[in-house]
């Protein structure tokens, strides 16, 4: 069996008169003769030319958009415009019929809202199929990078008794029906939740294996219905023993540039299609609201530039003294040291001030998690964020606090029960070492590489407040 992607490679090598068998779904059927077929393996449709005069009418009537076919024929130079090659159909079998009056994904433009309502079929559109092919290639590149760097792939629990971020926005897991739950009677004998991060468990594994990474689903019960939030999303979280913050930043920069470079090379057709789609969309906006960089330009902006590294305090001073801040162009003014930077601030640093990706480090301790290493000034921690054009923060990480008494004090000040983290504290009792890690939200990276505007369009079946269809 030859897939469409293999056929394309054959066609590019000018191999004609090759006998092929293809299976796929009908995108369009014109003049009872021209079938555009796609099996999802590439963005290009394959034109198959049917001898309609010698094809039975009951077969022709079944060739509708959405129907699945098996076609055997020879590759020929196309006699028409729009494609260089086509298949001259010798035999055709209808594998599955599709009612043309009921099939939702017709060959016309559909809104993304409509496609989300038909998420089980939306992958048959060019845009969504491109996104998911890119998603697959990103996932492969992530595993490839860490494997080549000597990391071990580890699996951390989905059900956990700890809140890694201390935010409290977790999904409770219970087998009990009574709302007044006695956790002693519950399945695990204690309160458990779906994990918001595999980081803490990954730390334990790193402090015995050296360098590890976890890559899996995480969950957050944040009642937010924005284009940037999901209740279920995928995180990549490497943890490295003996790494300080500088080592961590070096690895994170190398990692994300390598992933994007790989995907840009492997998914050129899909990225070009998405770039062209986005450019058409931008032309419908007022001039002052259009993006300054195209999708391809944003990708190359990251690949071709070194990352600028500045401290939070340096970034704060730049933002506070910027014309945008003084002229009140920022929606959120930069007035007091210690604020959490908003996306508009992060993008200003990247797109306007430095004109390259930026890593901001040494954040105020009060806005960061308990596990981040406290600096000697007692006001900042060894945290870092990588900022990208068009999206702001894309990676967050830190050097972890390896000193037992300092960690215990941080836990106490944040009101966390020390008993919940007894095992985490044990890691600082028995052979503690400096160690670091970072987290990358897979969907956020896909948003950047695809240019999509809504995170619900880069995951197959989005989970959001009041929505768990499919």
Please, could you describe this protein's structure?
- With 470 residues, the chain is of the alpha+beta class.
- The protein folds into two domains: 100 residues, OB fold (Dihydrolipoamide Acetyltransferase, E2P) (Beta Barrel), CATH 2.40.50.140; 335 residues, 2-Layer Sandwich (BirA Bifunctional Protein, domain 2).
- The protein has 14 helices and 16 strands.
- The strands form three sheets. An eight-stranded mixed β-sheet has the order 6-10-11-16-15-14-13-12, sandwiched between helices.
- A hairpin with a 7-residue loop joins β4 and β5.
- 35% of the residues are buried.
Taken as a percent bin, the fraction of beta residues is 15-25%
Q: Between the first and last Cα atoms, what is the distance in angstroms?
A: 31 Å
CATH class of the largest domain: Alpha Beta
Largest sheet: 8 strands, mixed
Mean pLDDT: 92
Give the ordered list of helices and strands.
HEEEHEEHHEEEEHEEHHHEHHHEEEHHEH
Count the DSSP helices.
Answer: 14
Over the alpha carbons, how many angstroms does the gyration radius reach? 26 Å
Q: What's the number of extended β-strand segments?
A: 16
